[in-house]
Amino acid sequence: MKSIKTIMSLFGLFALCAMFVFALQDAPTDENFEKKIINDYNVYALQVPDYLNFSGEQLPLNNPDILERMDRELHVNTYWQSNGFLMFKRARKYFPIIEPILAKHGVPDDFKYLAVIESGLTNAKSPAGASGVWQIMKGTGREYGLEVNNNVDERYNIELATEVACEYLKKSKEKLGSWTLAAAGYNAGMAGISRRLEEQNVSSYYDLLLGEETGRYVFRIVALKEILSHPDKYGFNFRDKDLYSYIPTYKVEVDTIVSDFTKFAEGFNINYKILKLHNPWLREPHLNNKSRKKYLIDIPHEGYYQTNP
What 3-state DSSP class applies to 249? Predict the structure, then answer.
């Protein structure tokens, strides 16, 4: 009996030490963070929040069809973890550019998540030819004042493209009657949504029978809004240093022809690649500019790009 008591005492001491070590492992150090990456992975069924809204317009989650569609997008976007982490990283870099432009135009802040689902906050180009962070078609860009040609394509200028997106969304809201329908109209066109509303004799996006892409569109926006706003709730663990950083720039006015952007960049102590990273709308290594138009070229402040380790 005595030996058993001794063994039990030793076991208790071991368990106490193990609990102490486990507690230390929960400390938010880089080393323990890396251990969690390997050991802490679980998959859970998600619960759709009781209240969700887009631009202040509540989703009718008491409708079982709406609940199921929202549930789908929450699960798909939560458990596509690699894509999710990239959205967190890029949002930190690009939301500071998008947010003040939306605010200036009186467009709800929630529309920044529309840009997330449109392009993943990259300068993507769709098979149909929609381009840039806001996926603007060539004709739409020109209609709203963007220059679009082989030499300059301002759909890739995130600031100018956001201005155009705001103008389009405001017009869509005025025509269709709600921000939710304006978002759907961004995907399917104002005329397309207006025609469907009339054909089906309804007034809400949530009552429309739509094709797969537009039918999921607003739910995807709301899912990304919910996940990006509550990372801990959906199992995304990261530190501030894991996110991408917004790199401050200053603008240089150019109203002449630029024959060689490599030499132009070197004049600001950067290379051509860095110039293009901040000005993807400059589509060729030179600027034609026969009309002497004034362009604003972004130049990063010194010290942000180091080529040596």
Answer: strand
> Which three-class secondary structure state does DSSP give residue 65?
helix
pLDDT at 121 over 50: yes
* CB of 49 closer than 8 Å to CB of 226: yes
189: alpha, beta or left? (left if phi > 0; alpha if psi -120 to 50): left
Q: Give 88-114 pLDDT, tens digit per residue.
A: 999 999 999 999 999 999 999 999 999
CA atoms of 64 and 53, how far apart (whole Å): 16
Transcribe 101-157 into DSSP letters: HHHHHT--GGGHHHHHHHHSSS--B-TT--BTTTTB-HHHHHHTT--BSSSBBGGG-
In angstroms, the CA 258 to CA 3 distance is 89
Q: Is the dihedral of CA 253, 94, 182, 107 positive or negative?
A: negative
Residue 232 tokens read as 């801990």
